[in-house]
Design a protein that fits this description.
- By secondary structure, the protein is an alpha+beta fold.
- The protein has two domains: 3-74, 434 Repressor (Amino-terminal Domain) (Orthogonal Bundle), CATH 1.10.260; 95-206, no CATH class.
- Helix content is 36%, strand content 25%.
- The protein is built from seven helices and seven strands, in the order αααααβββββββαα.
- The protein has helices spanning 3-11, 18-27, 32-38, 43-51, 62-74, 171-184, 190-206; strands at 77-83, 90-96, 98-101, 104-110, 116-129, 135-142, 161-169.
- Strands 3, 4, 5, 6 and 7 form a five-stranded antiparallel beta sheet that branches.
- Helix 2 crosses helix 4 (43-51) and helix 3 crosses helix 4.
- The longest helix has 17 residues, at 190-206.
Length: 221
């Protein structure tokens, strides 16, 4: 399937933040009838969008997205940084899109008897949904002091991670990436390696994304 067809299909998918977008317009003084006229639909449909019982498509909602899209994006972003502990070079990033997946991979610290003392998160894999079928992957590693190799601590949790922005993927490519990631990068975290393929599929399904290879057992309502 070429990129033009994929883009066309993406515009016909339900837009996840329909309710929030409509509320922005209503709070800005629009009436439901005015929204319906702009989006070329019926007032009853707009009412359903407002309640959250239905979602419009990106194509339908484009007139509102052109006006309020920047505000919607501003409400869903995270700030990251990368720190080279040897050169102290710093780079800062602002990534838009709702975080739908952020597992942490922990080192189980034990005492001399083998009793678990605490789990120290050492790595994280963060996925932002950036609209349509686009997912941005961020790899994070815990910042450590150069001399002692002890993890730094801070009351702001985001400050203790050095981040690397990887790439933007489709949902199918994201699943393949995570499935390979558990094999290539998690040798020291066997429990995480075993469960990661399930967790990414669960996250996408909870986010309303169809996932290939999942056997469906629909209820008869």
């Amino acid at each position: 399937m070429d990129s033009a067809v994929k883009s066309k299909n993406a515009k016909k998918k339900p837009f996840k933040w329909t309710r929030e977008l409509v509320k922005m317009a209503l709070n800005d003084g629009w009436t439901q009838l005015e929204i319906a006229d702009k989006c070329r639909t019926q007032q009853s449909i707009v009412s359903a969008w407002k309640r959250g019982s239905k979602q419009g498509t990106e194509e339908q909602l484009l007139p509102l997205l052109n006006i309020y899209g920047h505000k919607l994006r501003r409400n869903a972003y995270k700030v990251y940084w990368s720190l080279n502990t040897e050169t102290l070079e710093k780079t800062f990033y602002r990534v838009e899109g709702k975080v739908i997946f952020a597992p942490a991979f922990c080192d189980p610290r034990r005492d001399k008897s083998g009793k678990l003392v605490k789990k120290i998160p050492e790595y994280k894999l963060v996925v932002h949904h950036q609209g349509a079928d686009q997912y941005l992957v961020v790899h994070q590693s815990r910042i450590k002091f150069t001399n002692s190799k002890q993890e730094i601590e801070n009351q702001v949790e985001d400050a203790i991670w050095s981040s690397k922005i990887l790439e933007t993927l489709t949902s199918n490519d994201l699943i393949r990436f995570v499935d390979n990631y558990d094999v290539e990068s998690l040798n020291n975290y066997p429990s995480d390696a075993q469960t990661l393929p399930f967790l990414i599929r669960q996250a996408l399904i909870h986010h309303g994304v169809p996932v290939e290879g999942v056997i469906e057992y629909p209820a008869a309502w």
